[in-house]
Design brief:
- It is built from 8 helices and 8 strands.
- It is globular and about 45 Å long.
- The longest helix has 18 residues.
- Strand 7, helix 6 and strand 8 form a beta-alpha-beta unit.
- The strands form 2 sheets. It has a 6-stranded mixed beta sheet with strand order 3-2-1-4-7-8, sandwiched between helices. Strands 5-6 form a two-stranded antiparallel sheet.
- With 254 residues, the chain is of the alpha/beta class.
- Helix 3 crosses helix 4.
- The N and C termini lie far apart (68 Å).
Length: 254
């Protein structure tokens, strides 16, 4: 009798464990995407390439293809406006999931292809990211911020020219510092000089920065073999994991 009871208890325990949700399979990543809509970027040759790549990038992550992390939350917004600190809408995951890569690209072009000479206001974007994370109770979950941009900020104007000295020291990442243990900014399409300034000059303590230069980003097209099924492009998804989603170490504070 005791033996049978133990067997039943063991079977009940195994059943409960089997039915319990696997925390490892539950997406935790919060993914924010910023699209630079300033004239300097939208009028460059990199803008169309960036929108096309971003459509594949979002499709791959939303479907967890070839090890890409599925986000628990996704928000996509523009970076820039007519005036400093201008708030922008953050479009949620529901506008992009259950879409093909072509449908995602069409949505991105609908949202971000309006011509204009806007300011590139990174600080307003980062502050808004922080507000959305706290409002949506996403604090402590790993946070990745992907930015497609030439990476050059706008802060001051002097006789029609940007004051270049000290621009990168004015980028304020403090709203992001303690949102999670792992906060990573991936800035795609800067030139090498700008990339180095983001890595070396932008003040931060915990936030990780990973720039991928425009000439490196252009290599994503070489990874696609024009197969009818995008999910089969293992080389392409491997390229994203290793080049764009590279795991970044925290900057040492000297």
């Amino acid at each position: 009798m005791i033996y049978r009871l133990r067997v039943l208890l063991f079977a009940a325990l195994m059943f409960a464990l089997g039915c319990a949700p696997n925390k490892k399979d539950t997406p935790r990543l919060s993914l924010f995407v910023g699209v630079d809509i300033s004239g300097s970027f939208t009028q460059s040759a990199n803008f169309n390439d960036a929108i096309r790549f971003l459509s594949y990038y979002l499709y791959g992550h939303l479907n967890g293809i070839e090890g890409l992390k599925k986000p628990r939350a996704l928000f996509v917004s523009s970076i820039g406006g007519d005036t400093p600190n201008e708030p922008k809408a953050f479009h949620p995951i529901q506008e992009f999931e259950r879409k093909s890569s072509k449908e995602i690209e069409a949505k991105l072009r609908e949202l971000f292809s309006t011509p204009g000479n806007y300011l590139t206001d990174f600080n307003a974007f980062f502050k808004r990211v922080s507000e959305v994370v706290q409002k949506r109770s996403l604090v402590l979950a790993p946070l990745t911020i992907v930015i497609v941009s030439d990476g050059v900020p706008d802060f001051a104007v002097d006789n029609g020219q940007r004051i270049m000295e000290g621009l990168y020291e004015k980028i304020d990442l403090s709203p992001l510092e303690y949102l999670a243990r792992n906060v990573t900014i991936r800035i795609l399409y800067p030139n090498p000089t700008v990339a180095v300034k983001w890595e070396r000059i932008v003040p931060r303590e915990r936030v990780r920065i990973w720039p991928v230069e425009a000439e490196i980003m252009q290599g994503w097209r070489e990874q696609i073999d024009n197969r009818p099924n995008l999910e089969e492009e293992k080389r392409f998804w491997k390229w994203i994991r290793e080049i764009v989603d590279h795991r970044v170490r925290r900057k040492r504070i000297l």
